[in-house]
Amino acid sequence: MTLRRTFFMLLGAFAVLSAIAGLWQLADSRDKAAAAEWIDLTARLSDAAQRAGAQLAMERGLTAVMLARPADAGGRLQVELRQRRAAVDDAHAQLTALADELARRAPQHPIVAALARVRQDRSQIERRRTELDAQLQGSAGAPDAAEPWVALTTRAIGNLESLIAVGMLPLRDNLYTYASLPVIKDLLFTLAEHLGRERALLGVAIAHGAPLGEADQSLLGAYRAVSTHARRRAEAIVEHLPASPALGRAREGFRQELLHYEAVRAGVYQNGVEGLAYPLSAEQWYREASRGIDAATGLADAIAAQSARDIERLRQSARNTLGLLALIVVILTALFALAVRTLWRRVLEPLKTLEVAVRRISGGDLAQPLAAGRDDEFGHLARAFEQMRQALLDDIRQRDADARELRKLNTVVERSASAVTVTDEQGIIRYTNPRFSALTGYSNSEALGRKAGFWRSGLNSPEQYRDMWETIRKGRVWEGELINRCKDGNLYWAAVHVSPVADDNGALTNFIGVQHDVSEHRELKNRLAFLASYDELTELPNQNLLRERFAQAAAQARNDGSWIALVSLGLGRFKQINDSLGRKAGDDLLRIVARRLRQCIREQDAVSRQEGTEFILMLTGLGQAREVQALLERIIDIVRTPAVVKGEKLQPSAAAGVSLLSDDGDTFEALLHKATIALHHAEAQGLKYCVFSEELDRETRERMSMESALRLSLAANALELHYQPKVDLATGRVVAVEALARWRHPVSREYISPARFIPIAEESGLIQQLGAWALGEACRQNKAWQDAGLPVIIVAVNLSAAQLHQPDLVEIVADVLARSELDPALLELELTESALMEDPRQANLTLTRLKQLGLQLAIDDFGTGYSSLSYLCEFPIDQLKIDRSFVMDLLIKPAAAAISSSVITLAHRMGLKVVAEGVETAEQLTFLERHHCDEMQGYYFSKPLPADELAALLRSGRRLASPAQASGCTVLS
């Protein structure tokens, strides 16, 4: 049997035995604790039963005396009777509670049946009390009622005595519940009971003044025999009880009171037997006899108190035993765990470690060292094994050292990412690795025996090779980059390292050449150098290179007094090309423009590409400023020449801004900034080019100032909406209004024309914020007019191209309608032709979703854009608005009249309404009525009005009168 198995068997036996002993002790302690509780409860039950019996006996005698002579039952006896009855009731209550607790602990114990009999006696006594009270209150009295009452109470006291005796019985399977204490209590109870019977019998005789007959003497003799026997047994038991001051005082009182009782009883008994007058009255006799009974009860109480203290000590001892046992179990468990842990670590683990080490060493594995462990027998054995392992390992390591080094070197060289050649001292190749063949294309057999360097390309200088041989023959390493040629004729750049190898005497024996292909690295390096100075798409110089050339040209210009012009050239409508033909087509067009710019500038000039579609030209050596105009005319004309891209003939749109060195500053950044300002002005004004001036700079600053002021006003909600009525030509009623933004400058407080601040909002990106504000305010105002009871009208709000391209436009409109609670049918959105035609397909999808909200859609400024009739048929619109430019020329340009009438006819055939805007004269109105235009708006009826003035107009109910009806006098009715 192994040591490990023996160890575990012993540990298991120890654990089992300890567990059995612990469980037995635990069960025994629990029995002791239960016995202590049971003895305590039965002792308290005996006390309560004894008190109940004693008090009932007093009630029995007092009631019998009162029944024998009702006339003498005065108030004092009545009070005494009530006190005794209350004492009996209180004792019965305590008795019942204790008996219930005992019955709960042991439901099958005989005490349950005894308790039932006591409760039955209690019920009969209470009924009998009621009857006796009624008889005592009568005048005749009831002397014959005493005997049944005495019999009933005597039986009840006997049942109480039986309850005490039953309480002495032990619990089943618990020997600790046996105790002698209830015996002495029973004796004292018996003594008190028979003394009480003597008191009752003699009390009746004294109350009647009758001598004691033979029957009475016989009963008194029996009572005397029982009480004497009980007294002697009680005194004998009390003698053996542990002494205590309280118990000693109770014993002495018991002896004195019984001696006094015996003396009084002897006198009463003697006179009763001889027929003489009794020496005291019935009440005196009752009082004197009660002293003996109280002495027995007092001794029982003292013994009960002593017993309670002893039982409490027993209970505390049981608890201490139980706690000590638990502590011992914990300590044993801890000791057991400590023993297991110690034996495991000091014996089993070292044994296991040695066993594994021996098995591993015997199998030839010497790599794992063996820990020495503690300074004990196992530690000494482990160190011996470790010394043996080290000795074996040193022998093997010494034997295999050279072989490992050779294998390592061979592996490194064979798997090297660089081509390796080894030559002798004359440069004849003796070895090549696989990478050499992969790099040069020459196999190992083709290279061996040849002079190193047969792969030269002839593009390297002879000085490089001469320097290489001189370096390595001096015993130093040579490094450099060479252009070599592969077997197939391809060239490659190689980073070359040649190292000399010397013997122990310092003589050169070999040369090791290592070369690594760096062609991609050289290409990347050249590419990065190119990108640092040139634009990748057009291969034009970038801004960095142009800045360097500008610095050189500026220095030359300051020397010779010439001019330098910095031109910022931008291409227009480039987004449409990308959207229609694709980004690659846009890139091709940029390359064409770049090529044209290179071809049309002079040799001393330079051109560079900025971000996007902007190019920078640097024109140098100008004798005077106006020379730049001729150069720019020719350059822009060349750029605007049509070009064919992807089979499409495109005509680039270009504009330029110019700044001059002598006039506009000396730094490159300052000139470029001013050229950009001039470019933006040229694009805004539709010019070929624009030369920067201070006035232009002031305009730019004013626009920036106005942009800032507009931004602040939008943030402060300081803009206003004015509303221009739309009138139905058939009825003359106002059926709709167009919301128009109005802005007071926050400083000057003057109205700024929309023609000024709307373009600024579009350029700065504020147009979306402005449009969202106008939409929300217009819907809110229209709902307020409705709530005020004004006529229901439609409010039209303009949408910019930027708003139309918002991906969440539909959600924004729906949210505004929900927050304002405006009926969607009372909102009309107006969009320009140009905004719709930037991306017709996407615009159609957005309009369809907007139309699903239930609102109206209109095309504003119709006829001024590039609308396709096919798209016009697809758009879900409700109304066309004839641009004011056509309305103004109705009477002076036949083309305008023709276009207007055609638009009206076309719209009606498509089921659309037509609105003419900008109507200012009666003649224009007459033309529109004649061609059945649906609605008009313009100064002829009303200019745009603030919200309160428009409300007054709607409230007045004014209408537009036909020119014929008005007879040229007025347009309102």
**Which word captures the global form?**
flat
Distance between the termini: 128 Å
Strand order of the largest sheet: 13-14-16-17-18-19-20-21
Structural class: alpha/beta
Q: Into which percent range does the helicity of residues fall? A: 55-70%
Mean pLDDT: 81
Q: How many individual β-strands?
A: 21
Give the strand content.
5-15%
What is the makeup of the main sheet?
Answer: 8 strands, mixed, barrel
- What integer value in Å does the Rg equal? 65 Å
Write a brief structural summary.
This protein is an alpha/beta fold.
For the structure shown, list the relevant keywords:
32 helices, single chain, alpha/beta, 973 residues, eight-stranded mixed barrel
Can you walk me through this structure?
This protein is of the alpha/beta class. The chain is 62% helix and 14% strand. The chain is built from 32 helices and 21 strands. The strands form 4 sheets. An 8-stranded mixed β-barrel has the order 13-14-16-17-18-19-20-21, surrounded by 4 helices. The chain has a 5-stranded antiparallel β-sheet with strand order 2-1-5-4-3, sandwiched between helices. The protein has a 5-stranded mixed β-sheet with strand order 7-8-6-11-12, sandwiched between helices. Strand 9 (643-645) and strand 10 form a beta hairpin. The longest helix is centred in the N-terminal third of the chain and has 81 residues, at 282-362. It is flat. Mean pLDDT is 81; it is low at 968-973.
Give the arrangement of secondary structure elements.
Blueprint: H1 3-68, H2 75-105, H3 111-137, H4 146-167, H5 181-208, H6 214-239, H7 245-274, H8 282-362, H9 377-414, E1 419-424, E2 429-432, H10 434-440, H11 444-447, H12 462-473, E3 478-485, E4 491-502, E5 508-517, H13 519-531, H14 543-560, E6 563-572, H15 574-581, H16 583-600, E7 606-609, E8 614-622, H17 627-639, E9 643-645, E10 648-650, E11 653-660, H18 661-664, H19 668-685, E12 689-691, H20 694-715, E13 720-728, E14 734-744, E15 751-752, H21 754-764, H22 767-787, E16 794-799, H23 801-804, H24 809-820, E17 827-832, H25 833-837, H26 840-851, E18 856-862, H27 869-874, E19 879-882, H28 884-888, H29 894-909, E20 913-917, H30 922-930, E21 935-937, H31 947-956, H32 963-966
Parallel strand pairs: 11-12, 14-16, 16-17, 17-18, 18-19, 19-20, 20-21
Antiparallel strand pairs: 1-2, 1-5, 3-4, 4-5, 6-8, 6-11, 7-8, 9-10, 13-14, 13-21, 14-15
Helix pairs in contact: 1-2, 1-4, 1-5, 1-8, 2-3, 3-4, 4-5, 5-6, 5-8, 7-8, 8-9, 15-16, 16-17, 20-21, 22-24
